[in-house]
């Protein structure tokens, strides 16, 4: 009879603990899903920004654009003989050792 009473008390104590743990798990799940949603939105935002950046790079690197700016600055295309190559001595950084 004493064992039966202990068993009933254990069951009675286990039910509220189980309910509490279930509620806690649901709360943590909802919190994590909110974080996942925020990260997904940020990922989408960064992806769109990256697409715009790639398009802008393509526009800025367009040969027609570079030629137009060069003409506006009064620059002319040079031949191999009219080009001057300048080589600067390499500068060693402290991090290079």
TrEMBL record:
The keyword Cell cycle applies. GO terms for biological process: cell division. Keywords: Cell cycle, Cell division. The keyword Cell cycle applies. This is Cell division protein FtsL, putative.
């Amino acid at each position: 009879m004493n064992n039966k009473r202990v068993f009933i008390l254990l069951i009675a104590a286990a039910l509220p603990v189980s309910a509490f743990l279930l509620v806690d798990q649901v709360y943590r799940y909802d919190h994590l899903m909110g974080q996942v949603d925020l990260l997904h939105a940020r990922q989408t935002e960064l992806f769109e920004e990256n697409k715009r950046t790639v398009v802008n790079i393509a526009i800025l690197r367009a040969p027609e654009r570079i030629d137009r700016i060069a003409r506006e600055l009064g620059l002319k295309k040079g031949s191999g003989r009219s080009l001057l190559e300048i080589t600067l001595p390499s500068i060693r950084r402290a991090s290079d050792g």
